[in-house]
């Protein structure tokens, strides 16, 4: 019915029935209280009613469309078809796109909310003058404000350019681009290059990222003083047009306090959507870990030492730990145990956990004085075809996904890979014997390497299940395949993304897995549902990296739009948005205690985030090329990063996360002064001969395994 | 990656130079030399496809020559057909909203390997045995069920993961479908109750063997499996014609 209202208003306007339209608009204002929903556009086009487009000069607000809802609140209206308005001087464009342009919604406290049509603001030939006027003003402003106001340049430039292209003013667009593209910040150069190739309206049609950028509001965080300065300038008579454009495309999140310095701003900007609004990072996140079930350590020890006398007191110690954790109260930051349904613990899982605890007891304590040894697995003769690597948690198997669409599994230990016997042979074995799990394996099929065929495109992501029974692989053919590691055959192909899937990962408890791809969404699946359970939509560009939080309640996705989002598995909401990277994100790692997230991107920086507060807490500079691998050590003391620059670097995580400033000001505004301590935190740089590092894995005893494909040159 | 080898201006044809310049403008500095050839080939193929389409459209509109509108139409049709783009943002947000409203399903404990229903899995056999002209065997009352091979698609004949070559039939009273990774109880089998000769598959398919199953061992739960295999001897005009339904049941995977 909302859509019919829109359609009726459009019809009335088209038929020049102004009064009826006003009456309907006034009455409609009484309806529609909370219109949530996605961004869409409403526009009208009519030959002859070009007066609608003309913004009355002198007024600082646009009144091209209709306002619905009480003032001083912002809304977004969803409607499918839209038509465009053009000013009398230019051609009438009559395009009916399905996605349409953007709706202007203001949430600023001192501007009344008005929904206005995405009409063309002013004369296209004057865009250059508007922009240079604003540029002059900002460059003449006070130093303390200049850094903040300079944030306006890039989004305004892109939006004005896209609008010129969209309205088919090709020559004006070209000259506008030529004149001003050199002024933009260096980290936007890749975007500008893409923009330079978009010269016609038809070029924009296939580029979903640019379309999304056009329809979403670029978020800027500016202090109140700078904002007042800007507003006063733009509301002057001659700057009317650019004020309209600012209102239309930018969302200015105002904070009270000191204006930020260029350094602070540079740390946080860079994404396609601007920065994150402060409210976007305010939701409560349960970053604590789930309680591990306690069970007795078995009394029969298979210890290599085999010291029986000392065995007894040794056994008592683990039991004491269990008792200790029982008396601990429920961690307030941990999610309730049954917040999301998790699979039950099978006997084999319990055995695995016991092994894990035993190995944990023999784990090396890492630190600045005790660095891990690194064991590098080099894939030879891959001819740049190695696209994904994963290692099981107990470090027994390693899988490689290749550009020739094969998935190859190797055994890291001397124990070979075997598949299960045939049905006929299985009926012959003695099912009651103790080693039945050994007897079901067919010795004739033992080999060190198993090749899995099935995909029809390069395999971009692989993931072992925690119980080592299954393997996932995702590929450019748009499917995610589940393979059985007991028969080494493909069990299921999950179809949902119809476009390349860039990454996939099993949940730390198994059963769920997440995948992210070119269609800009991440999907949560369960192995026994052929359709996804959750769809996480919100990124402006491809989702390149997906990771589960250790408590399996949250999923982090890194994207080519240079943001990282944290999603809640329970209801699919985006609970955190982290901006700051200047290139697509390719690696994510959660710290073992669940509180922190480390991210690496093509800009060669590793950024550290505090999930609870939603703040950036560290920046590790050192790598010179894309970081494809990040991993925390088993107890979170060391962060290892591997990159295309053929090095593995170790960073001191304990020092990076101590002494965090989390006073009220920083949590309210999200500003942090990042210390330039990358050099102090760097514990070591280890170079490979000529092998980019694709994967890192800490064994249960804190030995670091790394993997990469040798590339001769 | 090998260093960019720009063809020397003397020897490279003009369009190769143009392509190299385009790559440079788009910021690509390191590429193998074959990339230029690939790009040129793609450009040629794309342009000829569009122009051919445009010619068809212009002749359909009874125009004397191809003009810009025809080309525009041709480009648009090809874009919608071959170079589809992902769905727009509001559509994605809408379906995400709908999908995220349903609560997460509860997990039934101890339900074996958790896989989707069989029609969504790739675990059914995707081949049929060629039937031989067989005499009707005298083993009336015995039932032959072709053995379910898991993942025969992806395993190479040289390394059979399942099944051993055998020239003669093995008459085994075995339970149905026992590989560990399959949830045997979920499978449904249509039992061909004809009694084909006990001969096994032809020697050309050594990896499969037929299994004779004692019907008394099969409980009602385990029997309901559709197989795609035609039991040998179905070519016989045997009186029990039920199995011929198997042919129609063949599910193209």
From TrEMBL, chain A:
One of its GO terms (cellular component) is transcription factor TFIID complex. It holds the Pfam family WD40. It comes from the Eukaryota. Residues 297-308 have a biased composition (Acidic residues). WD repeats lie at residues 379-420, 452-487, 494-525, 536-577, 578-611, 620-652. Residues 122-250 form the TFIID subunit TAF5 NTD2 domain. It is found in: Nucleus. Transmembrane segments: none annotated. One of its GO terms (molecular function) is RNA polymerase II general transcription initiation factor activity. CDD domains: TAF5_NTD2, WD40. Keywords: Nucleus, Repeat, Transcription, Transcription regulation, WD repeat. Signal peptide: none annotated. One of its GO terms (biological process) is transcription initiation at RNA polymerase II promoter. The TFIID basal transcription factor complex plays a major role in the initiation of RNA polymerase II (Pol II)-dependent transcription. TFIID recognizes and binds promoters with or without a TATA box via its subunit TBP, a TATA-box-binding protein, and promotes assembly of the pre-initiation complex (PIC). The TFIID complex consists of TBP and TBP-associated factors (TAFs), including TAF1, TAF2, TAF3, TAF4, TAF5, TAF6, TAF7, TAF8, TAF9, TAF10, TAF11, TAF12 and TAF13. The TFIID complex structure can be divided into 3 modules TFIID-A, TFIID-B, and TFIID-C. Homodimer. Component of the TFIID basal transcription factor complex, composed of TATA-box-binding protein TBP, and a number of TBP-associated factors (TAFs), including TAF1, TAF2, TAF3, TAF4, TAF5, TAF6, TAF7, TAF8, TAF9, TAF10, TAF11, TAF12 and TAF13. The TFIID complex structure can be divided into 3 modules TFIID-A, TFIID-B, and TFIID-C. TAF5 forms the TFIID-A module together with TAF3 and TBP, and in TFIID-B with TAF8. Component of the TFTC-HAT complex, at least composed of TAF5L, TAF6L, TADA3L, SUPT3H/SPT3, TAF2, TAF4, TAF5, GCN5L2/GCN5, TAF10 and TRRAP. This is Transcription initiation factor TFIID subunit 5. It comes from Orthonyx spaldingii (Chowchilla). The lineage of its organism: Eukaryota, Metazoa, Chordata, Craniata, Vertebrata. The gene is Taf5.
UniProtKB/TrEMBL annotation, chain B:
InterPro entries: Histone-fold (IPR009072), TFIID-31 (IPR003162), TFIID_subunit_9 (IPR051431). Keywords: Nucleus, Transcription, Transcription regulation. It is found in: Nucleus. Coiled coil: none annotated. GO terms for cellular component: SAGA complex; transcription factor TFIID complex. It comes from the Eukaryota. GO terms for biological process: RNA polymerase II preinitiation complex assembly. Residues 229-253 are annotated as: Disordered. One of its GO terms (molecular function) is transcription coactivator activity. Belongs to the TAF9 family. This is TAF9 factor. The gene is Taf9.
């Amino acid at each position: 019915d909302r859509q019919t209202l829109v359609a009726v208003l459009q019809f009335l306007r088209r038929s020049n029935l102004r009064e009826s339209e006003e009456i309907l608009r006034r009455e409609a204002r009484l309806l529609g209280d909370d219109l949530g929903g996605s961004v869409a556009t409403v526009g009208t086009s009519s030959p002859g009613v070009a007066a609608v487009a003309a913004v009355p000069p002198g007024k600082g607000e646009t009144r091209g469309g209709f306002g619905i809802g009480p003032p001083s609140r912002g809304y977004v209206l969803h409607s499918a078809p839209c038509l465009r308005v053009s000013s009398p001087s230019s051609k009438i464009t009559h395009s009916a796109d399905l996605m349409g342009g953007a709706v202007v919604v203001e949430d600023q406290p001192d501007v009344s909310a008005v929904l206005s049509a995405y009409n063309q603001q002013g004369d296209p030939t004057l865009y250059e003058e508007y922009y240079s006027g604003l540029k002059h003003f900002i460059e003449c402003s006070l130093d303390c404000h200049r850094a903040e106001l300079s944030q306006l340049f890039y989004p305004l430039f892109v939006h004005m350019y896209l609008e010129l292209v969209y309205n088919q003013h090709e020559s004006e667009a070209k000259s506008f681009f030529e004149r001003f593209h050199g002024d933009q910040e260096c980290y936007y150069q890749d975007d500008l290059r893409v923009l330079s190739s978009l010269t016609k309206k038809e070029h924009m049609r296939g580029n979903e990222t640019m379309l999304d950028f056009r329809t979403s509001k670029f978020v800027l965080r500016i202090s109140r003083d700078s904002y007042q300065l800007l507003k006063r300038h733009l509301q002057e008579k001659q700057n009317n047009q650019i004020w309209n454009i600012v209102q239309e495309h930018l969302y200015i999140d105002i904070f009270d306090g000191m204006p930020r310095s260029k350094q602070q701003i540079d740390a946080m900007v860079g994404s396609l959507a601007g920065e994150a609004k402060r409210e976007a990072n305010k939701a409560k996140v349960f970053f604590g870990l789930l309680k591990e079930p306690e069970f007795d350590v078995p009394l029969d020890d298979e210890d290599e030492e085999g010291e029986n006398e000392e065995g007894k007191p040794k056994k008592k110690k683990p039991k004491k730990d269990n008792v200790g954790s029982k008396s601990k109260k429920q961690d307030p930051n941990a999610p309730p145990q049954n917040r999301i349904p998790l699979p039950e613990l099978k006997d084999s899982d319990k055995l695995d956990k016991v092994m894990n605890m035993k190995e944990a007891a023999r784990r090396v304590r890492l630190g600045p004085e005790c660095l891990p040894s690194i064991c590098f697995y080099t894939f030879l003769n891959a001819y740049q075809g190695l696209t994904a690597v994963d290692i099981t948690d107990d470090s027994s198997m390693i899988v490689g996904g290749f550009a020739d669409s094969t998935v190859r599994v190797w055994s890291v230990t001397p124990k070979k890979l075997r598949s299960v016997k045939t049905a006929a042979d299985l009926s012959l074995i003695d099912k009651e014997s103790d080693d039945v799990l050994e007897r079901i394996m067919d010795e004739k099929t033992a080999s060190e390497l198993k090749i899995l065929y099935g995909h029809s495109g390069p395999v971009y992501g692989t993931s072992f299940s925690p119980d080592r029974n299954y393997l996932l692989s995702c590929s450019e053919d748009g499917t995610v395949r589940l393979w059985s590691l007991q028969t080494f055959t493909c069990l299921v192909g999950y179809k949902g993304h119809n476009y390349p899937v860039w990454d996939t990962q099993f949940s730390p408890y198994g059963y769920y897995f997440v995948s992210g791809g070119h269609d800009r969404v991440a999907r949560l699946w369960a192995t026994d549902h052929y359709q996804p359970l959750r769809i996480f939509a919100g990124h402006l560009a491809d989702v390149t990296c997906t990771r589960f939080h250790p408590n399996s309640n949250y999923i982090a996705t890194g994207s080519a739009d240079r943001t990282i989002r944290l999603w809640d598995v329970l209801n699919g909401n985006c609970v955190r948005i982290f901006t700051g990277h200047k290139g697509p994100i390719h690696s994510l790692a959660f710290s073992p205690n669940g509180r922190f997230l480390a991210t690496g991107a093509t800009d060669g920086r590793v950024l550290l985030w505090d999930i609870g507060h939603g703040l950036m807490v560290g920046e590790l500079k050192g790598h010179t090329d894309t970081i494809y691998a990040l991993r925390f050590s088993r107890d979170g003391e060391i962060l290892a990063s591997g990159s295309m620059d053929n090095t593995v670097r170790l960073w001191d995580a304990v020092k990076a996360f101590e002494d965090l400033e989390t006073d009220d000001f920083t949590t309210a505004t999200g500003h942090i002064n990042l210390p330039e301590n990358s050099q102090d935190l760097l514990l070591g740089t280890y170079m490979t001969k000529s092998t980019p590092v694709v994967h890192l894995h800490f064994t249960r005893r804190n030995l670091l395994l790394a993997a990469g494909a040798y590339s001769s040159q | 990656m090998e260093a960019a080898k720009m063809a020397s201006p003397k020897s490279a044809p003009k369009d190769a130079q143009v392509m190299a310049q385009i790559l440079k403008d788009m910021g690509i500095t390191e590429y193998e030399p074959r990339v230029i050839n690939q790009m040129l080939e793609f450009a040629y193929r794309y342009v000829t496809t569009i122009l051919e389409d445009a010619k068809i459209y212009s002749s359909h509109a009874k125009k004397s020559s191809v003009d810009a509108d025809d080309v525009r139409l041709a480009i648009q049709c090809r874009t919608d057909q071959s170079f589809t783009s992902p769905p727009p943002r509001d559509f994605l947000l809408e379906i995400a909203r709908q999908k995220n409203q349903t609560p997460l399903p509860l997990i039934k404990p101890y339900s074996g390997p958790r896989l989707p229903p069989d029609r969504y899995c790739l675990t059914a056999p995707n081949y049929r045995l060629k039937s031989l002209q067989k005499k009707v065997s005298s083993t009336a009352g015995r039932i032959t069920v072709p053995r379910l091979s898991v993942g025969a698609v992806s395993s190479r004949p040289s390394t059979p993961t399942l099944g051993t070559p055998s020239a003669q039939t093995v008459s085994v009273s075995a339970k149905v479908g026992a590989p560990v990774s399959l949830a045997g109880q979920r499978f449904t089998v249509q039992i061909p109750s004809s009694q084909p000769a006990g001969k096994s598959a032809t020697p050309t398919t050594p990896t499969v063997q037929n299994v004779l199953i004692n019907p008394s061992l099969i409980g009602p739960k385990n029997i309901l499996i559709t197989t795609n295999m035609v039991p040998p001897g179905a070519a016989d005009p045997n009186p029990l014609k039920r199995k011929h339904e198997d042919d129609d049941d063949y599910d193209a995977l």
